[in-house]
Amino acid sequence: SAAPMPYARILAGSTPIFADANGEFSVDLGAGETVTLNSQVRGQYFVVDNNGGANAQVVQTANAGEFTTLLHNAQNAGEQTRAEVNAYIHSNIVRDFALAQNPSYPTIANQTNFAVNVNIGDNCNAFYNGSSINFYTSGGGCSNTANTTVVYHEYGHHLINVGGSGQGAYGEGMSDTVAVAITDSPDLALGFQNNCNSPLRSAVNSVQYPCDSPIHSCGRTLSGSVWDTREALVASGVENYRELIAGWVINSIL
Question: How far apart are CA 13 and CA 62, in angstroms?
Fold first, then answer.
């Protein structure tokens, strides 16, 4: 389905302009003038690079006084462009979510051109390396990993890093928890293993501390605790539970 691309960068001729949070932009043209618009999958805060081939772009001519739509992946024709667009949109969602809870969050508020690499030639994983978030192609029994909660999770590692907290089991659990807080769902990475009814992990669990399992498994202690808190708030009739959970999650990282 079509979705806005917030803060997208568009070249109007040779002049870069940026869309607003709703993906809307304007170009000043005189009567009868035209301009060539070029939109790649990048914006003010994120630059998406397609490791599997050429970066997607939309090029079209706009006329003065006319409304123009630049639509990426219009034909939903392939995995690579879809991964570019999904990664871009969901990277902006998680960034905006964090700043809504703390507008002065370290680094994030002023960071531009953060690297998002998609369609890397491997399968069944995604990762954060300190300077970028990275997603793999489909294969090996897994879908393309550039989607929704996987993007939230990997950018969650970035929030943890610039927030000064450690990674390990805490990082895995908190990154899952960031995704849970955004979606208000315990299901993480639905469809990761090509089954859209089955999550890779769930915040509905009974994992306890201390834990000697692998870090992704032990991290469920944190996501499970936050989900239990969410359920208790809902059961108590707290209407703004999502706002509360969001603030607690993001600011606790600091």
Answer: 10
Q: State the Cα–Cα distance between residues 17 and 158, nearest whole angstrom.
A: 27
Selection from 44, 63, 41 nearest residue 53 by Cα = 41
Q: CA 73 to CA 82: how far, in whole Å?
A: 6
Q: Cα 122 vs. chain centroid, distance in angstroms?
A: 20
User: Do the Cβ atoms of 186 and 245 come closer than 8 Å?
Assistant: no
Average pLDDT over residues 51-66: 96
Residues 69/20, Cβ–Cβ less than 8 Å: no
CA distance 84 to 92: 13
Predicted confidence at residue 95, as pLDDT, reads 98
Measure the CA–CA gap between 147 and 155, rounded to whole angstroms: 12
| Tokens found for residue 211 | 């834990």
Contact between residue 128 and residue 152 where contact means Cβ atoms under 8 Å apart: no
For the segment 142-151, the average pLDDT, to the nearest whole number, is 97
Tell the residue number behind the tokens 């998609």, with chain if given: 118
Angle at 248 between CA 117 and CA 159, to 5 degrees: 20
* Selection from 186, 191, 190 nearest residue 206 by Cα: 186
Closest Cα partner for 108 from 116, 99, 100? 99
- Could you tell me which of 186, 215, 208 has the C-alpha nearest to residue 199? 186
